[in-house]
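Notes continue from the previous slide.

Worked example: a multi-chain complex. Inputs as given:
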Amino acid sequence: MTTVPFSLTRVGLIAAVTLREAVRQKLVAGLALIACGFVLGVRALRDFNFGTPELKFIADFGDGVIAGFGAVLTIVLLAQLFFGELESRTALTLLAKPVWRSEFLLGKFCGVVAVVVVFCVLLTATLSVVLWQRESALRVEGFAAVPAGVGFDPGALWVAAWMHIVRLTVLAAGMMLVACIAQTQLYAIIVGFSGFVGCHLQHVAQGVYSRAGSSAMAWIATLIGWMFPDFHLFTLEAGGAWTFEGVARLTVYGAGYAALALGLAVWVFRHREI
Amino acid sequence: MTGGTKPAVELRALTKDFVVGLKDLRLRAVDQLSLRVECGEVFGLLGPNGSGKSTTIKLVLGLLRPSAGESEIFGVSSSRVEARAQVGYLPESPNFQRFLSGRELVAFYGRICGLAGARLKSRVEQVLGWAGLTEAADRRVGTYSKGMLQRVGLAQALVHDPQLVILDEPTAGVDPLGAAAMADLIRQLKAQGKTVVITSHLLAQVEDVCDRVAILDRGRLLLCAEVASLGNRAVASSPESLDENDRAELARWLSARGKSPGAVVAAQSRLDRIFIDEVRKNRSDSGSGPA
């Protein structure tokens, strides 16, 4: 019997086809265009800055756009591509070849992550241009809003972009697990969004439970902390004064959760009937 | 892989139940099915709609897990990826990535099966030629007609030169010319020593190309026999099978009654007749009325 080992080549082939399919979807183009439009048009919204300096407002707003639209893109795109493949039965032809189900899932996952990376890089580049242009204009006008050393920091912006990529990769892995369990696309999307919100708010839940004083509550808080990644950590690192150590720690943290979710997804998908 | 005395496909008491509804109700799609498909033969898996043909194929390909029993391809359990290394599969009403061209699609599946370089290129051109898609190879699959989709599906099934080719309803929705071309291609595959498994309910087409057939109904095997041996069981003969004198007499008899010679149409193929008889018998035995 000829053995068929796990192949990264097949994963790459499936990812490349997934990426080609994804970039043809109206959803991707639509979300990327709207997000770009928000970033480019942020100056029109500066009256809503609640007193923060203009450059910080632009950076925070752009960061929020990347986070929000990135999450929508990740959840909906992954659900569409996964269920589209099952419903159109293209998965049937592919899985009838000597392809491991783990290769299929990882290929789909990598294709979606590639789209997420392109999305984050594109929007961060757009945001960089907007910030650089506005900072230059403010300096020319001699505004006190840009004191020396407080202006636009490209390094921090790209660290924030990396944090978005790590967070959305964890989200994509979690979404893959949900899609493998779910029977319908709508259910997967709803659970995916709920999970995303839950992961963002879990530090609140942990705080409440740990303050409750009871050991049972503390145990629940610990359990929640282990089960769900804390997306708030990524926001803190991106928004504050970042360090290489902090970024590396969060990258490993995110990679661990992504690997765990993908491992579970592969296990579930191996038992799923196509 | 294909050597020795291992059959191309072997099913032993294969059973598949689907859970339907919330009360753990089970629908038996395949019931204690045991079959052997020998290497080099063209085997027809026949049955009415819902008889379990496609489920059986999915079980053979490891896409579904059996509730009981075993399935092997060239002696390797269907649950293993290795079992599919020598299998080409054309699904029923195939659907592919619409944004790829026919050539890109076949090349993609070729790469997935481990082909590369000059070998990949030559196999892609060869199978596109066999499928009659050379001219349309650079068109996007999304622009293909149903018949062309069937042909590009066949090309992707054959690109890695598999020893076992499984065709699920290969002529469904295909015009008579396409169906005849498919039959020719199956004969070519047989001539190359490939094993071919076809599922169909278009029996006349299958009868022409198959060495052996199995008839399924409600997941149960009703009959498995060589097509040649089924002649003994024929229950009707067509006017064409009569000799010249008998045909002339039949024509005179019809003419005397004001009927045209075409009033007597060819009887159903012998396989059609056997198929209908077996299915009716099975259903009356199980007390569910006529087919």
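Summary box: Chain B has eight helices and ten strands. The interface with chain A takes residues 1, 58, 61, 63-65, 75-76, 81-82, 84-85, 87, 89, 91, 94-97, 99-100, 108-109, 111-114, 153, 156 of chain B (CB under 8 Å).
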